[in-house]
Every structure is written in C-alpha cells, then in structure tokens.
Amino acid sequence: MTRHVGTDRDLTATGADQADEVHASDARADFERRIYRRSTDTIGADRRMALPAPTGVRAVGAAGHIRLGWVPVPGAVGYLIERTDGQNGRSRILDHGGSDVPAVSTHEFADTGVRQDVDYHYRIGAVAGAEYPAWAWSEPVSARTLAGPAEPIDVRVDALKVTGRLSRVWHMVGSERLSQLCLGGDEQLISAEFAAALRHAHDDLGATLVRAHAILHDDNSVVHRDKAGRLQYNFDRIDSIYDQLLDIGLRPVVELSFMPAALARDPEQTVFTYRGIISPPAEWGEWRELVAALATHLVQRYGIDEVAKWAFEVWNEPNLVVFWSGTREEYLRLYDEAVRAIKSVDPRLRVGGPSTAAGEWVELLAAHAAKGGVPLDFVSTHTYGNLPLDVRASLYDNGFDGASIWWTEWGVGSTHFGPIHDRVIGAPFVLSGFAAVQGRVDALAYWVVSDHFEELGRPPRLFHNGFGLLSVGNLRKPRYWAVHLAAHLGDHVLESHVEGDGADVLVQAWAARHDDGTVDVLVWNGTINAALMGGDPRLNRNVRLIVTGLGDTAHKVRLARIDEQHSNVVAQCPPEVLWPDEAVWAHLRAHDELYEERLPDISAQQHVAELNFALPMPGVARIRLSPALPPRPTVDNKENQP
C-alpha cells in the first residue's frame, strides 16, 4: 500500500506494510551505523600537502556575530576555523552545526550563534584538501559581539555596469533512483508525481542534467548469467527509464552503480532498503565488459552526438564504508577499468569521479589519473551543510585544468529526516552556494528534486524533513523558491556592492539584467550554521537598496519574499497532520505560491530607485524593476473616416 499521495487515502498498514517498515528500520540503523566510517585515514597524512598559516587574520565584533577575515593562501581549497570560548576555555573547530566538511571556502566569514559579552579567540588553518589537516595555524585574534541594534545594510546596484555572464550552475539536479519512473500498480501515482517533479526542474528551474543512483541495480535486470555461466545483458528497463527522461528534456549523468549480483564479489554487502550491492566485482574484466556493453548500447540507441552530452560517473561515495566495501586502491581500479571501457566505445564520451562524500579524494584521483595517463573529463564530489570548497588547485597541479568541476550532491543537510530540510534557512543557503561558486564550478546539483525518496524507506508523512526541493504532491518548499529566483535571473550580472553590519558574510546581493531591460536584485540573509535554523533576531537586518542607471524609463516594481511568513507552504500544514485530507490539500495548494507584492512605480524622471525593507535571518527578497511599456499611440478615428 502506498502511504501518501496527493489525495486522502486509507493509511492502515497491512502485514506487508509492517514488514516493509521493519526492513526500513533495519536499513536505517545499518546506514547510520556505517555512514560516518570513512576509508580516508588522515593519520600520517602526506606532509607534501602542508600549507603555511594564513596571515592578516582579523576578528571584528558585530551585531549577533563576529566577522573573521584573512589573506588567502595559494593552493588552499579551504580553511579550518578554531574557536576558543574565553569564558570556559574550550576550543573546537567549527563544524557549522554538523556539516560533513568543516573547512570553509571563503576568506571572509561570519561566526554566528555566539553569546553576548563573551570574548572569543580564533585561529585559522589552511588545508589542501577536505581530508587533510591544517599543518600550521595563524596567530590568535579575539573579539566579542556588539550589543546592537545593527546598523542598516546598504545595497547599491548599477544597472548599466555588466560585470559578467550568469553561470547557471543549478542546471544539474540530484534525484532518487530513476526506476521510480517505472513503478506499477498503486505506485503509479508515485511515478506520475516523480515525473512531474523532474518536469518542474526542467521547465521552471532550467535543469538539463539529472544525476541519480542505481542504474545498474538488479531491479533493472541489467545482467545475469546463463546456464553456461556467461554474462547476458538486458538494457530494456534502462531504455524505458532514459526514454522518459529525454522526453522530459533532461539528460542523465550515468552513475555507474550499484554492482549487479552476477558480478559482485560479495553480493550480501548492501545499502539502503532497496539493497544496492556495494561490493567490488569478483572479476575486473567482467566489470569492464559490462560498462563497455552499456556504453555501446546507449550510443547505438541514442546516437553518439546525443550520448556525448551525457556523462558517466564512476560509483557513489566510495570513501564511505557504507557505499563501498572495497579498498581505496580497488576504487581506483574500478575507475580505471570503467574509463577504459567507456573510451573504447568513443573517446567523446565523458567520464569522471570520484563522486566522494565530504569533498575528499579529488587530489587522490587527479594524481592517480595523471600518473597512469587515465582520462579525467570531470571531477565530482559532494558536501552538505557548507559551501563547496575550491578544488581547482588540485586539478591544475595534476594537469587537469580543463576538467569540469561538478558537485553532484549538495544540500543544506545530509541527515535523512534531519530537522533542517523543510526549514526556511535552506533558501538563503541555496543562494549563497550558487553565488559562491560562480566562475569556479560548472555544476552544483541540489540533492534532491523530490521527496519521493526511498533510500531509507518511503516518506512517513507529508512534511517529514525530506531531501526534496518538492514535497510529495509537488508542493514547493522555501528552498525550491530560492532556486526558482536564481533560475529566473537575467543573464547579465550587474555590479553590486553591499555595505554595513554583516555585509557579504550574512547579507549578500546578486543583481542581473534581462535582455528586455528588467533588473532583478536578489538580497538574502543567512548563515551556514545549522544550529540557527530557527533564526536569530540579532541577525535580522534592515536593507536600503539603491539602483542607479535606470535612464529615462519608468519602471514597475515588485517585491518577492521567502521567509517564515512568506513563500513557506510548510508552515501552512498543521503539525499534527501526517497526510492531508482533501480540505488540507486544498489549503496547501492555495498557499503553494511565491509571495509577491507591488511597490510604487519608479517614474521616468527619478532615474534612481531607492527602496527600504526588512530582511529577517533567514530570509530572501527579490526586487524586480520592469521597464514600463510606452503608451500605445491613440488613433484619431475621425481622420480615418471617408
């Protein structure tokens, strides 16, 4: 029995349902037991990866936070921040409320969640990779927060000064396994909603690529052995999946996982409720043969010009024991065999990895590929609860400066059913990430598009803090609206400046112009500190926006908002409701919209727009200035009479 979907239904569990729930519970316990066990050992790390301590470190007290800054260190992918509480003397490296990567990518940072009237001491260390320690620490600096209230934030935008072209890094999205497109019986409702979610991603958010697990899972009947022990392939199910995906307008990133039972060295090593096999192959030649057969089939069916626009990603998070029961060296061989198989079909096919958790193994794979002369068309890795690190130095140092950089999983939190997923703080988080990686990352795939997600069991209620941008029933969560606002920016990025208490570390701005002259200014207020997912009144700000360069044209003005009170359908669902009845569904559908309000027009004589608005933390505002159409000429009917 299906336990959801966008209508009221009987939710009484059958015996089979109860058995499924026990299985899901067991899978969840096993996953949580193993998820933090990594194959990366930083003890005895290679000292050749050591970096010097940052210099010019400063700490400045501000309202509700302490602003930190330092001089960037060449070769650093990020920086660790050690904070000592002057009241109790305790020291710790900031983990931002539980991020899987503590290092931050920027050299300006707001430490939030700190107490008033307490001195805090800081040291900064540079790291050459997410898995490496900081070998040298800066001299300590100290500060305490200001009492407040905070001074206003000034945002200035010049509508005439274009600084570059917008990089739409959200063109890739993450997804649960795509076999959900092919469910039957009662579960056809899931398939329909899942397909609709992917259409939302394509049609509204501009997604062109989707990355998902388990295309080689035995549910897809990809390979088996005949009576003589020979491998037999069947790609019919994969064809059905990819046909539907292409019909939607999306292309796949073909994640080569999990291991089919016919090939696995140990088919009992599995993960998730659907028991994806995480074992290396028993025979490496058979893995290479399977990958080559798949690539050959896809090229024959869809054509090389089409499949060359796809990509093949080797495995998922092999640095975690829960996803790869082999060694690090065995993963590198898995990669080598897959690359050689794919390139033997056609060198234009794109392939990459390591698809690791927590930003690790990028340097490892790049160095390995360089040493062995193995192609590396793109590097992929993941992080949650933090902004992506800058891994370009690792690629440049190993001769892969032309390789694309893809974060094929990224999101506000990594914990299944974690309390942050449905909160508003995900909206400014999304925009901070998209803005931070401009010019250094080619794709930043939010994980995932839909709450139809079955890794640890089907959703137990409508708003269950699922990973999706969209709920079951395709209601749009606050962070969906943030991606929507980014996707609907113009292509021409405008010069903008932010000044004031928290400028560029809490409150950020992004301005862009459309070809028709419409100017959009996105302003958001957020922190990566998940401990503040419910907000912090000390971090609320008032914003004064000034837009110059509007010329002699009148403009219509609209203000869109995302915060606890606006564009937040989650808050409209009574907390006691597991699955809505028809009345609650109707209420939620009515509130499933982006909040917008009309502001006074800017006249042709003004030339400058000045607006003032409050911006809570967390919160997002989008100001749209649209050129007013010139009045249509009137026709004197008398002159046209005979």
SSE arrangement:
Blueprint: H1 15-34, E1 58-62, E2 65-69, E3 78-85, E4 91-93, E5 108-112, E6 120-127, E7 141-143, E8 153-165, E9 172-175, H2 188-203, E10 209-212, E11 223-225, E12 231-233, H3 236-248, E13 251-256, E14 270-271, E15 276-277, H4 284-302, H5 304-307, E16 311-314, H6 328-345, E17 351-356, H7 362-372, E18 378-384, H8 392-397, E19 404-411, H9 426-436, E20 443-446, H10 478-487, E21 492-499, E22 507-513, E23 519-525, E24 541-548, E25 555-562, H11 582-590, E26 595-602, E27 609-615, E28 619-627
Parallel strand pairs: 8-24, 9-10, 10-13, 13-16, 16-17, 17-18, 18-19, 19-20
Antiparallel strand pairs: 1-2, 2-5, 3-4, 3-6, 6-7, 8-21, 11-12, 14-15, 21-22, 22-23, 23-28, 24-27, 25-26, 25-28
Helix pairs in contact: 4-6, 9-10
Tell me what the structure shows:
The chain is of the alpha/beta class and 642 residues long. It has three domains: 97 residues, Sandwich (Immunoglobulin-like); 149 residues, Immunoglobulin-like; 319 residues, Glycosidases (TIM Barrel, Alpha-Beta Barrel). The protein has eleven helices and 28 strands. The strands form six sheets. It has a nine-stranded mixed sheet. Helix 4 packs parallel to helix 6 and helix 9 runs parallel beside helix 10. The longest helix has 20 residues. The protein starts with 14 loop residues before the first helix and ends in a 15-residue tail after the last strand.
- Strand arrangement within the widest β-sheet reads 26-25-28-23-22-21-8-24-27
Q: In this structure, how is the largest beta sheet organized?
A: 9 strands, mixed
Top CATH class of the largest domain: Alpha Beta
Distance between the termini: 76 Å
Mean pLDDT: 92
Radius of gyration: 26 Å
What fraction of residues sit in β-strands? 25-35%
The helicity comes to 10-25%
Number of helices, where a helix is a run of at least 4 consecutive DSSP H or I residues:
11
How many domain regions? 3
Shape: globular
Low-confidence regions:
1-20, 634-642
For the record, what is the CATH homologous superfamily label of the largest domain? Answer: Glycosidases
The CATH topology annotation of the largest domain reads as TIM Barrel
Given the helix and strand composition, which structural class is it? alpha/beta
What CATH architecture label of the largest domain applies?
Answer: Alpha-Beta Barrel
What is the count of β-strands? Answer: 28
